Amino acid sequence: MMESTWTLRRATPSEEPRICRITIADVPDALRLGWRDFQANPTQLIFLAILYPVVGLVAARAMSGGRVMPLVWPLASGFALVGPIAALGIYELSRRHERGLDVSWRHALDVRHNPALGSILLLGLMLLAIFAAWLMMAEQIYQATVGTLPSRPADLAGLLRTVFSTPEGWWLLLLGNGVGFLFAALVLCLTVVSFPLLLDRGAEGRAIDAGTALRASLRAVVANPVPMALWGVMVAGLLALGSLPLFVGLAVVLPVLGHATWHLYRKVVVR
């Protein structure tokens, strides 16, 4: 069991999930179904309780200056890189909802009993490593652009003025957002169906390994490049919208996207 859960062994043909081709219309439909699930079981208070202590801590550190200040935007935008981890409980609620089971928020914690938990944790560590790599890259970009100025910004207001009024600031925006896009595209390709697939197969008693789930996610993107690109744009747009003002909208956006991801998975992977 440990071998099948933790390793990236090659799956047998019968274990490899079958991937469907979907249309552009399936993407907003998945979002509509995600909104329906959220309305049936609102979980915004749970996300507020988790988000606000973290946001408050980062904001306080940023306002005080220091090394955290230049990483405010990378930290905020990079949250999308670990979003699939935060949405695990939401996937479970959507899975239970489609089976007519109880969907009270307590069942979001049932993931810890899933036979595929080992593989889920392995992919979670992978995302945390990607997130750390993004933060290190963002700091290097800052040091190579704004960091070369004779007088560096001492606070957040000064950083914003520098970013929008100097050539180094514009380079920071261009390079930072360009590299961030590559990181986000990588995570999209690796996780668009892998986490829901692991959770679903594990709950059915047919647990697969992390490697099989990653391959299924990559094949889903290759088979549906345009719908998946549209999905990525929609996710980025909704996360940006939910971040204003003061990230309060994420308490609704994150669970809705979690539910919608589950329904997109249902459309892409043959049951």
TrEMBL record:
Keywords: Membrane, Transmembrane, Transmembrane helix. The chain crosses the membrane at residues 45-63, 75-94, 115-137, 170-199, 220-240, 246-265. This is DUF2189 domain-containing protein. It comes from Teichococcus oryzae.
